[in-house]
Design brief:
Order of helices and strands: EHEHEHEHEHEHEHHEEEHEHH
Strand order of the largest sheet: 3-2-1-4-5-6-11
Distance between the termini: 21 Å
Helix content: 25-40%
Length: 369
């Protein structure tokens, strides 16, 4: 089989898209000897440099109509710039569908809000499907804001009709919803989801510690994970009505590795507040209280600081390549191994060790999904 580029469509040209696109170029310029930060240099013969942006959708007047390589640096984006002077590929950001992709309170923050491109007509489902087909897209990457239930389903339906695989990076339950994911299986298309698990972020660290408690026979009595940040994702999540799926996704990711299920009143996991000056820096405050031999109490506290968007992009680069690999192999439906390894809320929760090996087995061709 002749290897062709993996052509992706990005929905939501925000900070995560900025880090992803910079990362593709960054690793295209570096050899595997000195390329730090990637979990895998090669997946099924595909390297990061084999991914190219074929089309993109956004609704912000500062981004629509601009080259993707320029739009990713427009405000309110504030992701760390680690790869400047990106080549222009002639791909312009298209006007997207708004639906519930914007929180109503964003207008109270004029310097950070999204200014909807009012002089552009929102596309219909047929418009987006045509754009995906004309752009010869292989994989659609959903980077919409948390709480974008209707918009996420709209673009997932577009992917289905256009014959495109899906990586769902946000906590809208598509891959983990059997009634929805079955549509991809019937269409002969793979998907990975839901809610990206960062390379080394708050949730994966919390899971690792809770798993350590389990393996050492220590019962978790109470735990919290409180996160603050200054990007538009944290600003969007000030609307608590949009947080239900995010809290559930993050909480279940931790619950799934505990020795026994932690009572709801004894666990708190989720975004806490928006601190504008933090920009794309995310700070996690984590505490776990447990009981040792003879009921002796103990606790551990941790503070984690990361650049939020680059922390997720390396994972997305791997997920994209896994979806393309599945398409080459004729595998359809939810990719269980990759979803469990790369996502917080997969259809099948596994320990991180089991998820790692299930993903490795998938990549090496040892399992169907």
């Amino acid at each position: 089989m002749v290897k062709t580029p993996i052509r992706i469509a990005i929905v939501g040209v925000g900070n995560c898209a900025s880090a992803l696109i910079q990362g593709i170029e960054y690793y295209s310029r570096h050899g595997d000897v000195d390329a730090e930060g990637l979990m895998r240099w090669d997946i099924g013969g595909y390297e990061a440099k084999d991914i190219e942006v074929a089309t993109a959708f956004d609704v912000d007047v500062r981004k629509v109509g601009k080259e993707v390589s320029e739009a990713i640096f427009e405000p309110p984006n504030c992701a760390r710039i680690f790869c400047e002077e990106l080549p222009k590929g002639g791909v312009l950001v298209r006007m997207g569908k708004v639906l519930d992709g914007l929180a109503t309170h964003m207008g109270n923050y004029p310097h950070e809000k999204t200014f909807v491109c009012s002089d552009q007509v929102e596309p219909t489902l047929d418009d987006v499907v045509e754009a995906l087909r004309k752009s010869r897209v292989d994989v659609l990457v959903n980077y919409l804001p948390v709480g974008s239930e209707k918009a996420s389903r709209f673009y997932a339906d577009c992917a289905l009709r256009a014959g495109v695989g899906l990586v769902n990076c946000i906590p809208v339950f598509l891959a983990s919803n059997p009634s929805f994911s079955s549509k991809f299986e019937k269409a002969g298309l793979p998907l990975v989801g839901d809610d990206i698990k960062s390379q080394l972020g708050a949730t994966i660290t919390h899971r690792a510690l809770v798993d350590l408690f389990r393996k050492r026979g220590v019962k978790v009595k109470h735990t919290y994970q409180i996160n603050t940040g200054g990007n538009t994702d944290f600003l969007n999540m000030l609307n608590r009505d949009r947080l239900d799926s995010k809290r559930l996704s993050k909480t279940e990711a931790v619950q799934s590795v505990a020795l026994e299920r932690i009572r709801d009143e004894d666990i708190h996991v989720g975004p806490s507040d928006y601190v504008a000056w933090q920009k794309d820096n995310k700070v996690c405050f984590l505490r776990i209280e447990g009981s040792l031999f003879g009921g002796s109490p103990m606790n551990i506290e941790l503070r984690l600081s990361v650049e939020d968007s680059p922390n997720s992009s390396g994972v997305v680069i791997d997920a994209i390549r896994c979806v393309k690999l599945a398409m080459n192999r004729g595998i359809a439906g939810v990719l269980e191994g990759p979803s469990a390894f790369y996502m917080k809320h997969p259809s099948m929760q596994m320990s991180d060790d089991d998820a790692y090996w299930a993903n490795e087995k998938f990549i090496k061709g040892g399992m169907d999904s």
